[in-house]
């Protein structure tokens, strides 16, 4: 049975859980078929610490778009080592497509995200039944109605163990676990993706206001990625 056809019973059984309890339960339901997708961004350490706690060998997929901040690449190395993540999978766009994507973020960010993120991720997640991410409802916009277990495309499930978490709870987890912050957080970045499409937020702005600022775009499309199982 496709995992997405089980979403009702999974929500019934595990919908009251969150964080590492939820991640552990779903890893037991789908052994060897769960992967996490992480940007190693401003709040990623909390989800990654849960991965390390539940199963440090869980595949963690990191999309290196070719347009990331150097600080993100350094943080990825530091955090992976610190947490003892064993199976970090760095995924990159196909070199043949990169010429097409040169500065495409200026003229057509949707196409740029498609080439640099959506297409490579689609290949990387083939064979997994559950994709874990760090989305939270308090980030607003399309995420405001997020549930912890959601249907993905073409039969995959999306698991967001932090869906119900608040900013205060995230900050408390950083403190309790002594997790290092992404270096750009100190410069006012609260959501960090590619350098051309991320800026620091002003006081009072929503968390993701710095992403594709000045345009209507709010998501890159990877959370709609699915694959035929
Ligand atoms: S976030 Fe910006 S630079 Fe990165 S893939 Fe999307 S449009 Fe391109």
Task: Give structural notes.
- By secondary structure, the protein is of the alpha/beta class.
- The protein has a single domain, classed as 3-Layer(aba) Sandwich (Rossmann fold).
- 36% of the residues lie in helices and 9% in strands.
- The chain has 8 helices and 6 strands.
- It has helices at 7-14, 19-29, 44-54, 70-83, 95-101, 104-107, 109-124, 167-177, and strands at 34-37, 60-63, 88-91, 130-132, 149-151, 157-159.
- The protein has a 6-stranded mixed sheet.
- The radius of gyration is 17 Å and the shape is globular.
- The model has no long low-confidence stretch (mean pLDDT 92).
- The structure holds iron/sulfur cluster.
- The site of iron/sulfur cluster has 13 residues, from helix 7.
* Count of spatially separate domains: 1
Query: What's the CATH superfamily, by name?
Result: HUPs
- Physical arrangement of strands within the biggest beta sheet: 3-2-1-4-6-5
Total strands: the figure is 6
Share of residues in helices: 25-40%
CATH architecture: 3-Layer(aba) Sandwich
Q: Structural class of the helices, strands and pairings? A: alpha/beta
Order of helices and strands: HHEHEHEHHHEEEH
From the spread of the alpha carbons, the general shape counts as globular
| Proportion of strand residues | 5-15%
How many individual helices?
Answer: 8
Largest beta sheet, briefly? 6 strands, mixed
- Which residue ranges are poorly predicted, with pLDDT under 50 across at least 5 consecutive positions? none
Our Rg estimate from Cα atoms comes to: 17 Å
CATH C-level category: Alpha Beta
């Amino acid at each position: 049975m496709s995992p997405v056809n089980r979403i009702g019973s999974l929500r019934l059984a595990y919908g009251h859980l969150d964080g590492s309890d939820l991640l552990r339960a779903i890893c037991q339901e789908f052994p060897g078929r769960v992967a996490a997708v992480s940007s190693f961004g401003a709040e990623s350490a909390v989800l990654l610490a849960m991965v390390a706690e539940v199963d440090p060998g869980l595949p963690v997929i990191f999309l290196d778009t070719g347009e990331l901040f150097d600080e993100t690449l350094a943080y990825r190395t530091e955090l992976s080592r610190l947490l003892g993540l064993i199976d970090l999978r760095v995924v990159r766009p196909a070199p043949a497509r990169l010429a097409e994507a040169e500065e495409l973020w200026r003229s057509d960010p949707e196409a740029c995200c498609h080439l640099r993120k959506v297409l490579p991720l689609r290949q990387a997640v083939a064979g997994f039944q559950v994709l874990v991410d760090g989305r939270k409802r308090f980030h607003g916009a399309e995420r405001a109605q997020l549930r912890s277990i959601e249907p993905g495309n073409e039969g995959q499930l999306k698991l967001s163990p932090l869906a119900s978490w608040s900013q205060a709870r995230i900050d408390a987890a950083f403190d309790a676990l002594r997790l290092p912050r992404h270096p750009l957080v100190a410069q006012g970045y609260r959501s960090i993706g590619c350098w051309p499409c991320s800026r620091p937020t002003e006081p009072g702005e929503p968390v993701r206001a710095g992403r594709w600022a000045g345009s209507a775009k709010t998501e890159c499309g990877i959370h709609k990625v699915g694959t035929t199982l």
